[in-house]
Amino acid sequence: MARVSQRLMLFLCYPGGTVRKRKSVARAERAGVTEKISVSVDREDLAVLRRRARKLYEGNLSAAVGEGVRHIREQEGREALVRWLGAAGKVTDTQREALRAEWRGASVRHRRASRQG
């Protein structure tokens, strides 16, 4: 009788599924360390992403999003540097524009000098 109960238990507690899973429902393994996400973006922003993906990444939209993430990381790094510098890292708008003008002028002079040399 114990043997029958064991068979009955195996039959009733079937470890497999009875409904076939669709491939789209089953979670696919991702290559590397990537994560699949779902986001909602403005249509114009999506058009920009798709254009960038076609232009630089053979249409790979994930690569275009990754590029944006790299820019965000760079910006956060600059912000962390300014925090680390404290008062020395803070400039006024006038000082910032003067620095940018100086950099633009220096790079223009440098290019002219290298063309003649």
Question: Would you give an account of this structure?
Answer:
Helix content is 63%, strand content 0%. It has four helices and no strands. The model has no long low-confidence stretch (mean pLDDT 79). It is mostly helical and 117 residues long.
Structure at a glance:
The chain has 117 residues and is mostly helical. The chain has helices at 2-12, 43-56, 61-85, 93-116.
Instruction: Report the average pLDDT across residues.
Output: 79
SS element count, helices: 4
Given as residue ranges, the uncertain stretches (5+ residues, pLDDT < 50) are none
Quick one: how many beta strands?
A: 0
Shape: elongated
Main sheet makeup: none
Helix content: 55-70%
Structural class: mainly alpha
Give me the strand/helix succession. Answer: HHHH
Radius of gyration: 29 Å
Query: First CA to last CA: what distance?
Result: 100 Å
User: Approximately what portion of the residues adopt beta-strand conformation?
Assistant: under 5%
Task: Give the helices and strands, then pairings.
Layout lengths: L1 H11 L30 H14 L4 H25 L7 H24 L1
Helix pairs in contact: 2-3
Question: Which descriptors would you attach to this protein?
Answer:
mainly alpha; 117 residues
